[in-house]
TrEMBL record:
Gene3D superfamilies: Vaccinia Virus protein VP39. Keywords: Methyltransferase, Transferase. Residues 67-150 form the Methyltransferase type domain. The keyword Zinc does not apply. This is Class I SAM-dependent methyltransferase. One of its GO terms (molecular function) is methyltransferase activity. GO terms for biological process: methylation.
Length: 240
């Protein structure tokens, strides 16, 4: 009898797809170095991104618990407690979560954001930080988020109105940047239009702000849709 040896890998090397396409977060070559990005050249950007998200979410004082989907290694998920919010993390990638379990003390779930395994209004809020760009059906994901979250949805993402988007696309042509090949970049206006399609009949308000401006620029955050990153918060106003 021939015995097939089990490799012990979370994901076979030949299987690096999600949603029917190859994704960098299913490739250990990239996920194993993910945390290093934030400790190097990305550190300053992270500081301003967290400032922006804190400003937006903290205004909704109803929010005490939060589910962050696409949590990755929990870089942001670990941070929410610093502003008084109890966070849970969710991600589709076992490679990311295999690191997250050693870095995060809270609860984690492996699931697809299009089909969240939670009852209605399980959390006060739901967050997507630099992950919403990868969803094939963004309308469905927002509807799921609005079902699981009672009071609001926080979104932080790379801005389409950034010179770096063009640079990333040029890099991809030369095979130098695998991280954004399947990403769809939005502007605040584009994202707002998707939200309006997803939340027909709901009562809500939207606030957004941009950061990721050059270090030499007079301001580092403004309400103009230009910058490498923007944060947006949907406050749901038709719930008790």
């Amino acid at each position: 009898m021939e015995v097939t040896k089990y490799s012990g890998e979370l994901i076979p090397q030949q299987d690096k797809d999600w949603q029917g396409r190859p994704e960098w977060f299913f490739n250990r070559e990239h996920t194993d170095t993910y945390e290093l990005w934030y400790e190097g050249r990305y550190k300053r950007a992270e500081i301003w991104q967290k400032k922006v998200m804190e400003q937006l979410v903290s205004k909704d004082q109803r929010v005490k618990t939060l589910l962050e989907f696409g949590c990755g290694t929990t870089r942001f998920t670990r941070w929410w407690k610093n502003i008084g919010i109890e966070a849970t993390g969710g991600d589709i990638s076992p490679l990311m979560l295999s690191q997250a379990v050693h870095l995060f003390e809270g609860d984690l779930v492996m699931a697809d954001s299009h089909f969240m395994p939670f009852k209605d209004h399980t959390f006060d809020s739901l967050a997507f930080i630099t992950t919403f760009e990868y969803y094939k059906d963004p309308v469905k994901v927002i509807r799921e988020a609005a079902r699981v979250a009672r009071y609001g949805i926080a979104m932080g993402m790379m801005n389409r109105n950034s010179p770096k988007v063009a640079r990333r696309r040029v890099q991809q042509l030369f095979g130098k940047n695998p991280f954004y090949v399947t990403a769809t970049f939005y502007t605040p206006k584009m994202l707002t239009e998707i939200i309006e399609r997803a939340l027909v009949g709901r009562k809500y308000t939207i606030e957004w702000t941009c950061t990721g401006l050059p270090k030499w620029f007079p301001v580092q955050q403004w309400n103009v849709p230009i910058g490498d990153f923007f944060g947006l918060y949907i406050q749901l106003n038709d719930v008790e």
